[in-house]
Design a protein that fits this description.
Strand content: under 5%
Structural class: mainly alpha
Distance between the termini: 45 Å
Number of helices: 25
Shape: globular
Order of helices and strands: HHHHHHHHHHHHHHHHHHHHHHHHH
Largest sheet: none
Length: 552
Amino acid sequence: MTTVTAPAAGRASAPARIGAGALAGTGTLIRFGLRRDRVRIPVWVVALTLGTMSTVTEFKTLYSTAEERASAVGSMDSPAALAMTGPRHYLTDYNIGSMMGHQLIGFMAVLVGLMSVLIVTRHTRDEEETGRAELVRSTVVGHHAQLASALAVAAVANLALAALLTLSVLSAGVDGIAPGEALLYGLTLAAIGLVFAGVAAITAQITAHTRGASGMALAVIGVAYVLRASGDVGNDALSWLSPIGWGQRTYVFVDNRWWPLLLCLALAALTAATGFVLSTRRDVGAGLRSSRLGRRTASASLTRPLGFALRLHRGTLLGFGAGLFLMGVMYGSILGEAADMVKDIEQLQEALEKIGGVSVAESFASMIMVVIGVVAAVYVVMATLRPRAEESAGRAEPLLATGLSRDRWVGSHVAVALAGGTALLLVAGLGFGVSGAASVGDGGLVLQLVGAALAYAPALWVTVGVAVVLFGWFPRAGTAAWIVPVYAFLVGYLGSILQFPDWMNNLSPFGHVPQLPAAGMSWTPMLVLTALAAGLIWLGLAGFRRRDLETK
């Protein structure tokens, strides 16, 4: 018979070691995680692949001749353009493949990193915050099984993306692309995604809140992107401090160097191992960083629905505000070079001529405004669907059990989405205007571009209305609201270049916004969109009043 001796009172048990016992149940948790994300992961992978393929199609259309590609080299060989794309070395042999490596890897790396971060924090910190991790660990599950399964699920998502990207690039019909080059492109993005999955494994140990863990990991992605951009413009050593810079320096479709992937894999392993070690130094549900003590009493604003909703949305709103301001500054910095960038690209010239405008800079600014509007629409969808997350987590029920009405509760989140989305347009337009005015040398452009950005506010409000209707009447189908910004980008931005028929653009609320500053202001569509938004919001609130609340 084996005797089991309990640890002495007051004596802490030894921290769990990484071994077979510590990883017990990992396989079951991996299967469970893949089951839970059976929709999320395919949506991420397919969306990123379709984004790549639509860009490749755009490249083939815009740069079909050697002369057009040579012109693109001239437009890309500037500090502002290199900061937005990648290192200058890609320009030495600028074909369709090297365009993908140059212009896509940096942008795609941010999105792949976002996917990896959200997967890891969802299956680690979110499980602890909701109390499910404690129930799982009460069974035969090792101390490290949950983090190991989360990283494994993230790895499956990244490898699936790499495989699909490889197949899609090979099937795109681009001359001169070998299977090994397509595979290197896919694995480069997967390796970067694994690095940021490891970063999320660390941040999930630091804070006790999912949003805090995700926010810190996303801040690391932002720093990595800024280091990459700074190095590509100036000191190349800065790019070597960024995993995004490592991925770009595979020089896929140019030199096809595989060894930078080893740096990514080594950093991914180091960050993951650090996450495992840090997890032994905290209790379940707690973080390494102790929570700040709050005030003895809540401020007056937090006792009201609107103030409380604003507090919940504050971090996301500030993050999107900073991102959109920087996006506006980056696009504005190349506004003065717009004429040179498009002078030899027939399809892009036709798209800008269709928009109109006194100058190419005005037409180009009008085209970029669609992108800014779509990014702001991503925020308003997230903000409007926040009540659904509160309801699903069981936090809405105790609030609505008080004297708080359903209309006031949902309405507070809707008000933050409406006002926050409009504020994001203002911030993006200001950054675009100030940077663009400096690039063009026309101070009057500041107010013009701010007004052009604010013109998209009614389209954002309609997007909010669609999300409220889905939440109110069909809560399980709320994620369908993401169709609005995705479709707006496809037909509003890419459609103008690929010459989609006008009726497709008219199906999007963004297709009815006056294309300022190139076109004149038209108030009728603005008023119609505003009235439509008000009607949709009223309809959504009516549906929420009539349906049952999801309870826990």
